[in-house]
Design a protein that fits this description.
The complex is a heterodimer of chains A (about 300) and B (about 625). Chain A has about 300 residues and is an alpha/beta fold. Chain B contains 14 helices and 40 strands. The chains are: A alpha/beta (about 300), B alpha/beta (about 625).
């Protein structure tokens, strides 16, 4: 997989990349590829509260090599300290039924795409020595992993991604509130959702997070077919969450639908802009590197 | 607006299809799981008016297209369409008067050529939806496509006779009326004629054109002066060998030269002034059936400057008269003998009372004394004659219904009566002709080698022997029925006509000497004037003289009003002298024009507009482009 890392896996087609391995491996490739495209961070971030050892990596400051272990066991390790994590982040993932959908067989479902993106983000945070947690929600909070900066945290997050979901609603407000309770100090909260929910509760939750000093980023996951109706002819479109059935002739409503989706995106953007929340639309056919870069920019 | 095929308007019911589709829209279709259905609902709510307008517009365009197609299928015509558009479909019959008179030269070209030009102009205006016929004066009908009618027009030549243009018009009217009934189109009879008075002036109550419109084109230039040989008669038609050619001319304004030919020899030449008649006596050396002609110097109508005749030339019949036939028959035969129409010969044709009959051929006369009746019948039986005398009938005079010699009844004497006669009773089966009837019963009969008269030639029995027609009749009987030229006949006809074929004729010899076998009951004469000989057993035995009707030489025309009055057409008859005006009138219909093309154009426009709008509204924006828009907005 060295070649995969060197080939910038973060820029691969998401579906192709996902088919090459488990989410854990894929996330590593994404992050490795992503980081190889960045300049090394000048942050050192090590403080006095010891947290754990980790293997020495070229470039680590020799001051933090535990020479006694080197002398006694001939193992090169560096000491890590809890206080060096200068950021606490929570990834809030929508796992409602609407996320388990894709507009074309060759694409990932929105949930599969979001899970790999969340895994990669978590790994990226952890590589940056930041504490990161996970909240999964649909009509209620399904899974919560408290933020930690330990290397084992990522495996907990990966394991948590396999939890239950696919509920019939997206209660993003509760998911965000739960994340706020996990990140008590001002930190970073990233909402990954298709936002097929009412705007007001989300707005209130995001506004509360902003008031609390959190840096909020919203990654709006969309399948390309949700913006551009692809099906032709007459059809009855059924919302899998609400069972709302909408008969329509695609040719008739195509333009109006596109305008409506653009308007909805603009509404979400305006709403979040009022609270300083970053908002990005992420289509499931774009490489993971793009949303990762936007989220990373927020981290920087 | 009216429709030529109104039944096809039912296709308009198809317009309900887009209407139903419009109303049933979205009630069908597959179910698709689509999480963003809320955006669809919102889109429809926010753009409902626009979407409804689009649906309505598309539906209206589809309804319009189907309606236009249905209307077009029903072949609509309207008076509102301006002139210049395609004319309404019509059934057009062009009657071309190609009678002999139309071959007259006027202004350097024949009248017929001018009429054909007019017909060609009309044919060029025919469309595929029209039905067209070309009918000539001889009744020939050519229908079909404009191309076939045009080709038929090119083949039209002047007839050798008058033809029957009024009958052609009636036929044309029948054709177009029937066609118009089935297609509901306009029924037009376009007549192109020289307007000859002798053709159109004798049509009785007029030409019945029914519901068809009759549009007549007549030449604008007046007819030329014309002289003609109007009649030629060889008297008698058996020259023994002396005879006479009597000729009548017409239209000779000052003087004109003529020539009379017999066979290959010129019989006489001369100059005729005014309308004088000419008679030439001759005793030519030719023998047998000979043809001749009388030719006048040419003028603008060449075809009537020559006229033909035929005559049999040979020795007079030999006769052997029995003293028992009475003084009247004896006197008549003496007259014939003195004029060289007959020669006394004891071996000749016997003219004999029936009871003294011994040989044939014979003219057999009923016995004056009823006592001889039995002997007469026995003599008839011995001679093999299939007739017997019945008991004498005497009483009121019975009128004789014409006395026929050969096929010619022109010389029949209408004032012959019979007081005493023996009813003729057929005995056995044998071919025989009845030459005269008295009281409805056969009175004079003829067969092979005999002519049998059922009364004695006595004024007490019949007035026939004291009539002027008796001697010529006897002359004709002797020459045609019993003499050496017996069996022949002269038939007068017009070129191109069909005449009854004499049962003895087996070949027809044309003036150029070519022969053709005769079959069937009629003889179809060629269109060329002349003398055609009837042949029997390889020898000439009669003749058909084909010449135009004398009335064709009279080129005077009816006035427009008079000619118009000759047509009894509910659709009206209109006269024109201008070719283009006539053509316009033929296709002017009832003022209506076809709306087919505008409707099809409108249907096409509606379909194109619908297609363009539907494609524009249904064409997906390219995904990447849409995303760029969204990202730009971001």
């Amino acid at each position: 997989m060295e070649s995969t890392r060197s080939d910038r896996a973060d820029l691969f087609d998401p579906a192709v990349l996902a088919s090459m391995g488990h989410i854990e491996i894929v996330a590593r490739w994404i992050v490795d590829g992503f980081l190889s495209g960045l300049h090394r961070s000048p942050r050192k971030g090590f403080s006095v509260e010891f947290a754990e050892y980790r293997p020495y990596q070229p470039g680590d400051d020799l001051r933090y090599v535990d020479w006694r272990i080197v002398a006694r066991a001939d193992r090169w390790v560096v000491k890590q300290f809890e206080e060096e994590t200068n950021l606490r982040a929570a990834l809030v993932l929508d796992v409602s039924r609407s996320m388990v959908w894709r507009g074309a067989p060759q694409r990932l479902t929105k949930l599969a795409y979001a899970e790999r993106l969340v895994a990669a983000l978590a790994l990226l945070f952890l590589r940056q020595r930041d504490a990161v947690g996970l909240v999964r929600f649909d009509d209620a909070v399904r899974t919560a992993v408290a933020p930690r900066a330990r290397t084992t945290q990522w495996r907990r997050i990966i394991a948590a991604l396999d939890g239950p979901g696919a509920g019939r609603a997206s209660n993003a407000a509760e998911g965000l509130a739960h994340a706020a309770r996990m990140v008590r100090r001002p930190g970073m909260i990233i909402l990954v959702s298709d936002l097929l929910t009412d705007i007001e509760p989300v707005d209130r939750a995001v506004r509360a997070l902003s008031v609390a000093g959190h840096d909020v980023t919203v990654l709006h996951i969309m399948d390309p077919a949700e913006r551009e109706l692809a099906a032709a002819g007459d059809a009855v479109f059924v919302d899998p969450e609400t069972d709302l059935a909408v008969p329509a002739t695609v040719a008739d409503v195509r333009d109006a639908y596109r305008e409506t989706v653009d308007a909805a995106i603009a509404e979400w953007r305006d709403t979040f802009a009022r609270t300083g929340t970053r908002y990005e639309t992420v289509f499931t056919d774009v490489p993971f590197g793009l949303p990762l870069r936007r989220a990373f920019a927020a981290r920087q | 607006m009216s429709f030529l095929s109104p039944l096809l308007l039912v296709l308009g019911a198809g317009a309900i299809v887009p209407l139903l589709l419009h109303l049933m829209r979205r009630r069908t279709g597959v179910r698709i799981e689509f999480p963003a259905a809320r955006y669809l609902v919102r889109a429809e709510q926010e753009h409902s008016r626009q979407l409804k307008l689009r649906h309505l517009l598309l539906m209206l365009l589809r309804v319009l297209a189907i309606t236009c197609i249905a209307l077009a299928a029903a072949r609509p015509v309207s008076r509102l369409i301006p002139q210049g558009g395609a004319h309404a479909p019509a059934a057009v019959a062009i009657v071309l008067d190609n009678s002999l008179s139309a071959s007259a030269i006027v202004g350097g070209r024949s009248v017929l050529d001018g009429l054909k030009d007019g017909a060609a102009t009309a044919i060029s205006r025919l469309s595929g939806s029209d039905r067209a016929w070309l009918i000539t004066a001889d009744g020939a009908v050519q229908g079909g496509t404009p191309a076939s009618v045009r080709a038929a027009l090119a083949r039209v030549k002047a007839l050798g006779g008058a033809g029957d243009p009024p009958a052609a018009v009636a036929r044309a009217a029948s054709l177009v009326s029937n066609a118009a009934r089935t297609t509901a189109g306009d029924a037009v009879v376009g007549v192109l004629t020289d307007g000859q008075a002798t053709t159109w002036g004798n049509t009785g109550p007029g030409v019945d054109a029914g519901a068809a419109r009759v549009i007549v084109l007549v030449p604008s230039l007046p007819p030329p002066p014309n002289h003609a040989v109007t009649d030629v008669e060889a008297r008698p038609d058996r020259w023994t060998p002396r005879g006479e050619v009597a000729v009548r001319f017409s239209g000779v304004a000052d003087s004109a030269t003529y020539r009379i030919d017999l066979g290959t020899r010129t019989l006489a030449r001369g100059t005729v002034s005014s309308d004088a008649a000419v008679s030439v006596h001759a005793a030519p050396p030719e023998r047998g059936w000979v043809g001749g002609s009388v030719e006048l110097e040419p003028d603008e109508l060449r075809a009537d400057d020559i006229r033909h005749f035929a005559v049999w030339i040979g020795p007079p019949p030999a006769i052997a008269i029995d003293s028992g036939v009475g003084p009247f028959a004896t006197g008549a035969l003496a007259t014939l003998t003195s004029t060289s129409r007959a020669i006394p010969d004891k071996n000749g044709v016997a003219i004999v009372p029936a009871d003294r009959l011994t040989t044939l051929p014979a003219v057999i006369i009923a016995p004056a004394d009823p006592v001889r009746l039995g002997a007469a019948n026995r003599a008839l039986e011995r001679a093999g004659i299939p007739w017997r005398f019945g008991a004498l009938r005497a009483g009121a005079a019975e009128r004789v219904d014409g006395i026929v010699v050969g096929g010619d009844t022109a010389r029949a004497d209408a004032d012959v009566s019979v007081s005493q006669r023996y009813p003729l009773v057929a005995h056995g089966v044998s071919a025989s002709d009845t030459l005269a009837r008295a009281g409805g019963a056969p009175w004079v009969v003829a067969g092979s080698g005999y002519v049998l008269i059922a009364s004695a030639l006595d004024p007490a029995a019949t007035s026939f022997p004291v009539r002027a027609s008796f001697v010529p009749w006897l002359d004709a009987v002797l020459s045609q029925r019993l003499g050496s030229s017996a069996g022949g006949a002269i038939i007068h006809a017009v070129p191109g006509a069909a005449v009854p074929r004499p049962d003895w004729a087996d070949e027809l010899e044309a003036p150029d000497g070519t022969r053709r076998a005769l079959v069937g009951a009629t003889i179809a004469l060629p269109a060329t004037a002349g003398v055609y000989f009837l042949r029997r057993g390889g020898a000439r035995a009669g003749a058909v003289v084909a010449d135009a009707e004398a009335r064709e030489s009279d080129l005077r025309r009816l006035t427009a009003a008079a000619l118009s009055g000759r047509f009894k057409a509910t659709g009206g008859a209109r006269m024109y002298t201008d070719r283009s005006a006539w053509t316009d009138a033929v296709f002017a219909g009832n003022g209506s024009r076809s709306v087919l093309a505008p409707l099809l154009a409108l249907a096409l426009l509606a379909l194109l507009t619908e297609s363009a709008l539907a494609r524009r509204w249904s064409q997906p924006e390219r995904g990447a482009e849409g995303r760029r828009v969204a990202q730009r907005a971001a």
